From TrEMBL:
ADP binds at residues 21-25, 154, 185-187. Its EC number is 2.7.1.11. Belongs to the phosphofructokinase type A (PFKA) family. ATP-dependent PFK group I subfamily. Prokaryotic clade 'B1' sub-subfamily. It comes from Halobacillus mangrovi. The active site is at 127 (proton acceptor). Substrate binds at residues 125-127, 220, 241, 247-250. The keyword Cytoplasm applies. It is found in: Cytoplasm. Pathway: Carbohydrate degradation; glycolysis; D-glyceraldehyde 3-phosphate and glycerone phosphate from D-glucose: step 3/4. Homotetramer. Residues 3-273 form the Phosphofructokinase domain. InterPro entries: ATP_PFK, ATP_PFK_prok-type, PFKA_ATP_prok, Phosphofructokinase_CS, Phosphofructokinase_dom, PKF_sf. This is ATP-dependent 6-phosphofructokinase. Keywords: Allosteric enzyme, ATP-binding, Cytoplasm, Glycolysis, Kinase, Magnesium, Metal-binding, Nucleotide-binding, Transferase.
Amino acid sequence: MNRIGVLTSGEDAPGMNAAIRAVVRSGLYHDIEMVGVKYGFQGLLNESAEKLDAASVGSILQRGGTVLQSYITEEISKEAGQKKAIENLKKLKIDALIVIGGRDALHVTQSLASRGFPCIGIPATIDNDIPGIEETIGFDTALNTVIDYIDRIRDTASSHEKTSIVEVAGKDTGNLALYSGLAGGAESIVIPEKKEDVESIVEQIKRGSGNRYSIIVVAEGSVSGIDLNAKLKEEAGIESRVTVLGHTQRGGAPTARDRVLASRLGAYAIDLLMNNETGKLVGIKNNQPVNFDFDEIFSQEPRIDERMYYLSGRLSS
Ligand code: F6P
């Protein structure tokens, strides 16, 4: 193995830069030529790649976002796009590719690997929604960002004895809402995995409306904060304020935990390639880096820890 490429794809997550740095510096340590592919898979389709040295990943460890940029393209999900990407990888003399990203990015990585190109996937998404992977890069930072906002909102909600709805990320999975709701002491948590309709959510909130004030954390994929607000007013006469955290959750300096996770997984991805192990997704289990076959991961559905959901209910009453 002489030349390894690295790219970030899909939505950015804090800690991606720390992972890029770890990949590049670990590769260089093994005398591998390292190449950064810009703009995710789109860059691969456009042959947009540049050689990276140790200095080119200097001072990025602490920065949010991704210095390699990211892009979402449909073309790479199709057979023709994947074939073209592999042709371009060969043209660029890249022997293996490391992809840092969330579910969609890792699905594409799986496809490239199954077409015979050596690939490793590093899970990075604030959603923490890769089945079987305990924690994705970016989740801890986003969680701390959300908690910071919940704490601030609680100060105001308690001073004015008002209900506040905080809408957090999570289109298909409610992990961020669940963890931030528990850590932020939310009175209600609304997540896509608990398929209550809005009426029963309103009922549940009405039952708790004896509270002086309350914080409702809602994952964007269950019901929008705006819609929930309207329903609460219409059906329960409860006035609330809505804060949609949106992209504030994606930006910001990664926490120490995310930097450590990203550094370990980045270095481990290179270790695997050095041992000629490819077609793997990396993660941490029992505090040790481990690897999984893509099929093993993607044959499962992302799940929340039900016990945490009930625990948060018990603690908030
Ligand atoms: O991956 C993080 C995330 O916040 C998802 O939860 C959400 O579905 C998506 O990004 C939204 O991204 P955008 O607002 O850029 O479309």
